[in-house]
Amino acid sequence: MVMISPIRARCFQLSFAVLVLVAIDAVAQSAPGQTQSPAQPSDSGSSLADVVRGAKAQKSAHAKKVLTDDDMQETAGPLPRLKMDGAENADQVVAAIAAYKTSHTPEETEKAVRIWYERYDEMLAAAIQENLDLKTLRDENLNNGNELCQQSQDYQQCQNRRMAELRGAQHDRAKMGENSNLMVRIQHSFQKVRNGLQQNNLHYDWFKIRTTNNIDQF
């Protein structure tokens, strides 16, 4: 019979205990609640939906909004705001400019007029551009719809598309009409204010009025 010294027996016990702890730790790591979930296969439907939503969000973020008078409240300056409904108040604006001129330097007067002008010029530019964009998009959709209907053998599908295009065109016409009213209001008010400036011996070369192509000015 082989005799084991107390020291060697103690070492053997410690080694066995270490092995037991290692085994327990390995089992714990392999438990369902402790393991990292394996890579799940991608859901093509969800991925596509995410892509579409992301594209729409990006488009919405870059889409140009037609500015309203309320959007530009912080840049109103000392002159009256233009009325967008009812009777025009361009004469009131001219009177305010004339009064402002009497108590301010030429530089201060020009700055006040320019703040007022740029505010409504930006609104005019946005309305013109949205109408141009809507017209271009509507023409493209109409042409694409006609081509698809000519290629398609499904009469009902073609008719459904035509009805959708008609509804979209009706909505666009309403929006374009709204923008056109805004454009006419600002252009006409600009003309009256510019005439009033000249009568008060205020001549600003930068006071231009945009045309409906959003390029030319007069």
Describe the structure.
With 218 residues, the chain is mainly alpha-helical. Helix content is 67%, strand content 0%. The protein is built from five helices and no strands. The chain has helices at residues 6-29, 44-62, 90-102, 106-151, 155-199. Mean pLDDT is 75; it is low at 1-53 and 55-65.
Keywords summarizing the entry:
218 residues; mainly alpha
The percentage of residues in β strands lies in under 5%
Gyration radius over CA: 36 Å
State the distance separating the first and last CA atoms: 118 Å
Number of β-strand runs? 0
Q: What overall form do the CA principal axes indicate?
A: elongated
Order of helices and strands: HHHHH
Structural class determined from secondary elements: mainly alpha
Counting H and I runs of at least 4 residues, what is the number of helices? 5
**Regions with little confidence, pLDDT below 50 for 5+ residues:** 1-53, 55-65
Overall helicity: 55-70%
Largest sheet: none
Averaged pLDDT, please? Answer: 75
Short description:
With 218 residues, the protein is mainly α.
Could you give the topology of this structure?
Layout (H helix, E strand, L loop, with lengths): L5 H24 L14 H19 L27 H13 L3 H46 L3 H45 L19
